[in-house]
Amino acid sequence: MKHQTIAVLDFGSQYTQVIARRIRECSVYSKIYHYKASAKQLKKDNVVGIILSGGPESVLSKGSPRPDKKVFELGVPVLGICYGVQLLAHMLGGKVEKSHAREYGHGELKIKTKGSLFRGLPSVLRVWNSHGDRLGKLPKGFRAVASTENSGFAGIVDEKRRFYGIQFHPEVHHTEGGLNILENFLRKICGCRADWSMASLAEESIANIREKVGNDRVLLGLSGGVDSSVAAALIHKAVGRQLTCVFVDNGLLRLNERELVVDLYKRHFNMDVRVARAGSKFLKRLKGVSDPERKRKIIGNTFVEVFQDSLKRIGESRFLAQGTLYPDVIESVSIDGNPAATIKSHHNVGGLPKNMKFELLEPLRQLFKDEVRALGAELGLPKEVVWRQPFPGPGLGVRVLGSITRRKLDVLRKADAILHEEMMGSNLYYKVWQSFCVFLPVRTVGVMGDERTYENVIAVRVVESKDAMTADWVRVPYEVLQRVSNRIINEVSGVNRVVYDISSKPPGTIEWE
Ligand code: XMP
């Protein structure tokens, strides 16, 4: 039997993906459709409820997007959000007018009639608004059930047809009770069961990949990070050995990193993993270069070159897979800030071979980071992969300050492995955003036994953060710092001093280069 589907018609809101995500949080299956999706299509997909998303346009502008009018005749409940409610009003015979005051940011919603939509909620809610137009007159059959300072029609209902409209955004975190409102719509109004889970999501994605890929081949650049790992595991489950992964060893990886990746994906998952061992090429090009930007450029360009070479060697393939996520809409936005302003873009794409034509396969595109982690766990990826700390693309290249040599990399690797062990051992590794060592290109005097030493310094950086935009240094217990310092100085030859970085971001950055 086809599962119950909630259709989210996308009118271009930056929150459309967030709506879909909230529906998944309610264990209900949802699908985002282009706003023009035909009523026939929705019916075929067993749609039991429709959400009209917000959008940047005004329904009063010529050519602004409209859904298929027949979606209002399907007999399923409809919830219009923001632009969506204006569409409802405009298309069903009401009136939308330009508001003299643009309603933006927090507002206070007064609920007059709770009905099914606001069941169980308090009578006053702080809600998040972002709209210019307002409703002037309701269509026949509708009545107002909630208001804000600027609008008597902030919540409208036609109970007979089961059409609902709200002018604010229930999907964003700063709307109080937003999730309850959506859940009321799903359960009480659309009659949705709570039977959609991560396992169903995995199944559905696997089926979609199979259908899309058919008998063709898929290539994927595996970095060992969460996103590419989950994408690889998912695609591998779908098409097995039709997937070939390329792992570039740029010589700037952490201790045993290549071995771990090969061990997990090749041995454990039986994936076709090709390792491009290009450490020497990278190091040769980096020789004597100490400017951070130049280092990054060299590493980036060399990566593209090595990756393209490997692809050519592997031969024809129709698809190139990427672990692109839905660009993180950061949830912890400031109270008065615009949530849109904190949208971060993802830099996964890049370095696509110009002379090779691929179709992109991006199975994680609609997911948020925490969902990707849950999906990874569902697919059997170990905790160390799913909850791995972020690691920069240029790797240790930006953690050996100044010019890079094999010796410095070796020293840094050993020190970093010790920090990693101690963070794991003290149960701190998964609690912080990142913990790593930096090799400083200065030497300081020390004394070991009876001898004077003149060796390098290792800086330890441990930060907490939600999104890497801001970060603070972690108050790591002194005992842990002491063990890290003792062990690095005793066990890593070439280091006689360890310092702890107590800078926050801003003004510091997380990485030192
Ligand atoms: P910064 O140093 O800018 O770092 O505070 C913010 C976050 O981004 C990571 N980072 C990178 N990630 N390629 C990446 O994939 C890069 O070139 C890169 N540079 C920094 C950094 O580790 C931190 O999590």
Short note summarizing the structure:
This protein is an alpha/beta fold and 513 residues long. The protein has helices spanning 16-25, 39-44, 83-91, 178-189, 198-213, 226-239, 257-268, 279-286, 292-314, 369-378, 383-386, 406-425, 478-491; strands at residues 5-10, 29-34, 47-52, 78-81, 95-111, 124-137, 143-147, 155-158, 163-166, 218-221, 243-249, 272-277, 319-321, 359-361, 434-448, 451-464, 472-473, 495-500. The chain folds into three domains: 5-189, Rossmann fold; 198-386, Rossmann fold (3-Layer(aba) Sandwich); 399-500, GMP Synthetase, Chain A, domain 3.
Kindly describe this structure.
With 513 residues, the protein is of the alpha/beta class. It folds into three domains: 5-189, Rossmann fold; 198-386, Rossmann fold; 399-500, 2-Layer Sandwich (GMP Synthetase, Chain A, domain 3), CATH 3.30.300. It is 31% helix and 25% strand. It has 13 helices and 18 strands. The longest helix has 23 residues, at 292-314. The termini are far apart. The relative contact order is 0.09. The structure holds xanthosine-5'-monophosphate. Residues 390, 392-394, 434, 468, 505, 509-511 line the site of xanthosine-5'-monophosphate.
